[in-house]
Write the structure tokens for this entry.
Amino acid sequence: MSASPHTDALSFFEGIPPQSLARAFGTPLYVYSERLLRENCRVLKNLTDIPGFAVNYSVKANANPLLLRIIREEGLVVDAMSPGELAIDLAAGFQPHEILYISNNTRPDEMANAIAHGVLMSVDSLSQLDLYGKLNPGGRVLVRFNPGIGEGHSDKVITAGKKTKFGIAPGDMDSVCALLNQHKLTLVGINQHIGSLFMQPDGYLAACRVLLDIADQLPAPIRKNLSIIDFGGGFGIPYHKRDCEEPLDLARLGKELGQILSEWRTKENYTGRFLIEPGRFVMAEACVLLGRVTAIKDNAGIHFSGTDIGFNVLMRPVLYDSYHEIEVYPKKPGPREERLQTITGNICESGDILAKDRTLPALLEGDLIGVLDAGAYGFSMSSNYTQRFRPCEVLIKNGGARCIRHRETEQDLLRPFEGLL
Ligand SMILES: Cc1ncc(COP(=O)(O)O)c(C=O)c1O
């Protein structure tokens, strides 16, 4: 079997050998496919043809402005959850009316910044609604509700249900209405996000029904102003590709979502927008992270293959115990035995494990590995831990590759200390 079955089947690298990408741009290297990114955007946009349906890409998954430009060309809008994300959205060409600010525990200055940019904002607690009203009396606002249903690949990313910090409970509706009245705010939308990475549509669909019920509970004079109902993201992708993990059944999700929205739209005479807010689904599978094998060793019966992909480059395996499929691009062609190995990074912590107990072609120094599905929460969660430089990103298009983010340098690390040393 080929050591790169997935990228071969997709023609991910469009004929460019990964070894030549690594020679040209160095490693670690995030490699994106423009073709696959556009395809993902289109799949989501076509989820349902219900009027008002739109896709709000969640920028936290990947905020590279050159990738955001492609997403904008595909007709998606975006969220922001910090002044930095807002600045990046604007730099990528999104207009304020194409940005929805969805944050939590937001500082007054951050709120004021979003308001000054004329961006609509969602608040997720009564105290933040009160603060928003004080900063922008008479303004327009969204409220994030907690539908009581959570989903996700780890407790750390389940963002609704009883145990999370997110959203306002539907039981607090009277207090929401009182604050809206007190500050003369117009409630233009409601939103939720139940968590990240669901592989079955049922929980998401159930939560959509709950959010529409919440809309129904709003007093008619408030409900009539609703023009945005945002059901959140969380659309999962199959990370276990070797085991042929089933993808999310988007056909069923789209059909049932369309039915739910269509009925509600007719019943309420609603003419506004329905948003979904995926991050991972747009980006994850459009990227392979390349890393170099730097050392091989056996320690107490464990075979370690050491690479330059530390958890400063890809944090998900360490943070969530996440699984990423690995492909091997050998330095020298020829047959290789498969063997059990644990692939590690170059950080001084024993938890710096990229892939534990994997059976893969026996890696040798100088080989390259490709970490699949690295486009979401990959670069965006990377750091300078141990003063390593954050990696370069390249984009493959029409059989060519171009840099879309320079690799950091010593100057980048020293910039915050200019004039202080
Ligand atoms: C409010 C909100 N919307 C959307 C998303 C995107 O989630 P995903 O990347 O799983 O689609 C997140 C992720 O944390 C989020 O917090």
